[in-house]
Fold:
Amino acid sequence: MIKTLFLFIVILSSSAVTASAQQWQLQTTIDGSSDHPALKAANKDVAWVTGVDVAYRTIDGGRNWGETAIVTVTENLTCISAANADRAIAGGGGPDFGGGNAKLYLTTDGGRAWKAVYTATGPASYWNFVHLFDEQNVIAQSDPPGGAGTFLIVKSSDGGETWTPIANPPSANSGEFGAGTSYFCFDHLNGWFGTATFEEGATGSRVFRTTDGGNTWAGFASGNTLTAADLHFVSLMVGIRTSNFAPFLTRSTDGGQSWAPVTDLPVPNVQFMFAAGGVSTPTQNQMWVAGRTGFGASATNFIITSTDGGATWREQMVASSALAVEIRRIRVPVL
Structure:
């Protein structure tokens, strides 16, 4: 199946935009393909972005980006994760993002060379996320390779050189698939990923949670019948889920087992909310969500922020130079 692509990204350091009134500025643009489905900020200086068949890397906090060597000529890239400026792993989504025999690709030299390290054999495989916990331990998740059945979740303990599927992956409901790059790992043990579905109904999209490093997963209704577009947690209990369908923002206070719509948002006429990011440190606990408001010629980007675990939100200013293209990803490096 062909999934939605993401076009505009934001990188935050934990000190970049505080709760005080500041304005978001367009820092730079990336040449090449307009399709940039995934972003990973490894630290305050290093980040990686996927293109269609290449990746882009910055080592100066996003001011300048360099194109890597070609990653693949057989499929389009859908996700990426990186431990540092040298080691990164990218996932594919089949030809034209349509799924099928999707591969994971590894570089250990900053993108000068890539190699395929794992293939999800099947006509519907599509890597939704890959995550490096550190330089050695990695996890990745694909749609059911056969088009139905269980999600494929694989792990690596040697930096992505070899991979092993988990023994008991969670089952997908009819019409359910992973929401691309909708995941969040709080630490080496606790993480979540979101799904979407073509079939609106009682179950709808779900949020899956692991508490044992990805070996087992439990699924819970996300509070949205269609999609859980992005996820972020500021603690093991408190997190948010965004969507491009109403309710656009839901909040959990029990680790993702239940979700309640967030009301009284500071922006009117929300079309969708996609990007979610945040930081949780001893000195700062803050989340950001980006989306689109208004209709037609009056449609514009917005960014809202919360410092109380998503209970209340307020808008931050976005410079006019950053209003033209939808903001679809916010990623915060751990400093």
User: Anything to note?
Assistant: The radius of gyration is 18 Å. The domain at 30-264 is CATH 2.130.10.10 (Methylamine Dehydrogenase; Chain H). The chain has one domain: 30-264. Confidence is low (pLDDT under 50) at residues 1-8, 13-21.
